Amino acid sequence: MLITTKELKEAIQNTILSTSKEKENPLYNVLLKIKDRKLIVKSQNNITRITYTANIESEEELSILIDPQKLANILKEIKEEKVEIKKEENTVLIQAGNFKTKIKTLNPQLYPELKESTEKQEICSIEAEKVKKLIKNTIYCPDKNDIAREYTGVYFEFKDSTVKATATDHYRLINITTQNEVQIETEFIIENSGATLINRLSLEGKLKILKTENEVSIETNNINVTSKLIKGSFPDYNQILLDKNTSNVIEIDRESFKNAVKRSSTMSENREIMLNIDLQSRLLTLSSQNQEGEIAEDQVTFSNVSANDNLTTKLDSRFILDFVGQISSDTVTMIYRTSEEPVMFEASEEDFSYKYIMTPIIE
Length: 363
What we know:
- There is one protein chain.
- The strands form two sheets. The chain has a twelve-stranded antiparallel sheet with strand order 1-6-7-8-5-2-3-4-16-15-14-9. A twelve-stranded antiparallel sheet has the order 13-10-11-12-24-23-22-17-20-19-18-21.
- The protein is built from six helices and 24 strands.
- It has three domains: 2-110, DNA Polymerase III, subunit A, domain 2 (DNA Polymerase III, Chain A, domain 2), CATH 3.10.150; 121-237, DNA Polymerase III, Chain A, domain 2; 241-358, Roll (DNA Polymerase III, Chain A, domain 2), CATH 3.10.150.10.
- The termini are far apart.
- A hairpin with a 3-residue loop joins β23 (343-348) and β24 (352-358).
- The protein is of the alpha+beta class and 363 residues long.
């Protein structure tokens, strides 16, 4: 049978992301089916699973369990518009132009077909770009090895026409909000690997988010990705967010602040930097020092929005850069109280608002 190279490449590139890492496991492979003029490719591991579907012209039928990495490597080198696939006992013949090769396959019955839950609740319809950004801008924060499972995933909230994503590792917390209509109000903690997978997939246009008791699904026209959820309650992060009305607030140019953090941290082996806020001169001084006593220092001016107290505190420069390096707002608002209390940064873009809180380094 003939199938377009582009369709097959896209199917394999997406489904390969959800396979098992153990070569001896049948789930290291993907299940590839062609039936009723549809190409269906499935993959799964112990956390996630993907089903990719595309309409094709072929009326023939095929069902194989195949190593996606081998197939991807072959397809990468094929320039012809179409490839021919033919099953031959325990192998599959792939031919394009003058090129041909055979790949060993497994019995497709080894693939454990799981029944989809009929109790899915549709949470909302949302742009794929929004979902991917919510994940991309939080996924760096969870501690993947934390013994408290709730801290290893990304916490989603759907309420009051907003979608929020939050993640923390005890030392910092990122919270992102975007506006979007929701059909039901709910919350869940998605597995870190599930969130990472969604972020890496080729998702475009509108998608649906659906939920069962133990899983969340993202559905588009051709991709259905499912991830297990983490049982438990995410900590009430609202208790640690700083209130502008009872805190000091200054506004900083984001790009200037980012560059100053990079430069001022060059002398610190562990990337710790000292921040000093002088309200009278309206200067934020950033500095670091190594064991030899060598110093790096930089300064940034700021707008005194609402502040009464100076500040001297020590923060992890990597944590700061994780935040200011991924947003595109012109300014960042810094909210603080004392040198021993957390510092919070706020920023807003066209469709997103951010709250990022960090604990100081206390020696």
